[in-house]
Amino acid sequence: MSISTPFINRPVATTLITLGIALPAWLRLTCCRWQHSRRFDFPTISVSASLPGASPETMAATVATPLEPSLGRIAGITEMTSSSSLGSTRITLQFDLDRDIDGAARDVQAAINAGAQPLASGLPSNPTYRKVNPADAPIPYLVLTSDTMTKGQLYDAASTILAQKLSQIKGVGQVNVGGSSLPAVRVELNPALLNSYGIRSEQVRLTIATSNANRPKVPWKQAITLADICQ
After folding, report:
1. pLDDT in tens, 194-231
2. What pLDDT score does 5 carry?
3. Which residues lie across from 77 on neighbouring strands?
4. C-alpha 192, offset from chain centre
5. What's the rounded Cα separation, in Å, for the pair 43 and 90?
6. R_g of the chain, CA atoms, integer Å
7. DSSP H or E stretch at residue 13
8. Considering 4, 75, 137, 155, which has the largest number of Cβ atoms within 10 A of its Cβ?
9. What is the pLDDT of residue 219?
10. Rounded to an integer, what distance in angstroms lies between the CA atom of residue 72 and that of residue 100?
11. H helix intervals, 73-222
């Protein structure tokens, strides 16, 4: 008698034994697939601040350092990291999984308002925050090249036209433009002439910065004169 004879003579028992072995294995395999494919959205908020022209050391000392103690007092924070680069600082806050992200956002805004006083006085605007998920990553990358446009024109077209159109697509959370430089104006000063009028170079810098600020409903840009610098 072979080993398969009892199973052939008892088909009902053989079927039940097969189901008893195959069904738990199938259920286990299904549960494992669900657990590995399940996605966790960690409550994470990113705080950003910018100071054009400031070195990474200056950003860390005058922006990140005053903000971190105020943000660190928020309840439910499990991890806080900060990074400073040329002209910008980013602080990432990660909260407990049971922390409500909307409530955490309100606490972050209150902490920013409380810590805004000791920040660098030259900040063009208050720090901003946004809800992020560290598990997310950019899906498509678009590269622009041109044989007729300069880098500044290409960057301007990408940021003002292409990025605006892409951000209006349903499901798009954020569009970042990088890889080039913004158009800039180089100002050359005559130290002897400035000294004769008693004008410091810092006064020139502040006058240029305040006269070129982005303001709403300004019909024209006011020209900078020597009298403006002397005031």
Report:
1. 888 888 888 887 887 777 655 444 444 444 454 444 55
2. 74
3. 95
4. 44
5. 17
6. 30
7. helix 11-37
8. 155
9. 44
10. 17
11. 101-115, 151-157, 163-167, 191-197, 201-211
Q: Which helix (H) or strand (E) holds 5?
A: helix 5-9
Residue found by looking up tokens 């309100």 in the block: 106
Q: Minimal CA–CA distance to 50: which of 108, 109, 92, 90? A: 90
Residue 128 bridge partners (DSSP) = 48
pLDDT in the model for residue 164: 87
List all residues 6 or more positions away from 8 whose beta carbon is below 8 Å from its beta carbon. 14
Chain length of the chain:
231
- The single-letter DSSP state of residue 221 is P
Read off the DSSP letter of residue 118.
Answer: T
Q: List beta partners, residue 79.
A: 94
Say how far apart CA 49 and CA 84 lie, in whole Å. 10
Among 136, 137, 134, which Cα is nearest to 79's? 134
Place of tokens 């900040």: 123
Q: For residue 221, give Cα distances in angstroms to 152, 184, 208, 215, 228.
A: 21, 16, 12, 10, 14
In tens, the pLDDT along 3-25 reads 777 767 777 777 878 778 877 77
Longest dimension (CA), the chain: 118
